[in-house]
Write a structure and sequence with these properties.
β2 and β3 form a beta hairpin. It contains one helix and twelve strands; from the N terminus they run βββββββαβββββ. Helices cover about 5% and strands about 50% of the residues. It is mainly beta. The chain starts with a strand and ends with a strand. The chain is globular.
Length: about 140
């Protein structure tokens, strides 16, 4: 499963169609099968409902290239594009309420655990994720 971290200011959305003004800084991230999750529990505030959006996954391995790629994304404002189990594309976050990228390395607790990075794209969003057409 893949997650695409898209800079929050290089896309436009018209209906279900996403277009990019530049694809140069879009990062395609491979996650282990069945590790990707998307949640967006609502929270009632004085201003209305917000969604505590999180898109997470596990990136196996700890090579220099993986570490460098994830470090370059750290604390960046992005929107997340991902596919669900039915093959539909979704976009979480927006220009007005982007997600923030973070990653944490772990060797695992047991000998059989694989080393890798748990990635989290999270933020308070004004809208739920949108189902979109294949943008790629």
């Amino acid at each position: 499963m893949k997650i695409w971290a898209v800079p929050y200011n290089v896309y436009s959305l018209s209906g279900k169609t996403v277009t990019f003004s530049s694809t140069e800084n879009i990062c395609e991230i491979y996650c282990s099968p069945d590790s990707r999750q998307h949640i967006e529990p609502p929270e009632r505030t004085d201003a209305g409902i917000i969604f505590n959006t999180q898109v997470t996954g596990f990136v196996p391995g700890n090579t220099q290239s993986i570490r460098q790629a994830l470090e370059n994304l750290e604390n960046r404002k992005v929107v997340a594009i991902f596919r669900d189990g039915n093959g539909d594309f979704w976009m979480a976050g927006s220009y007005l309420s982007p997600l923030i990228f973070s990653a944490a390395f772990s060797t695992g607790k047991n000998t059989s655990d694989r080393p890798g990075h748990e990635i989290i794209l999270s933020g308070e969003t004004l809208e739920k994720a949108k189902c979109i057409d294949n943008p790629f």
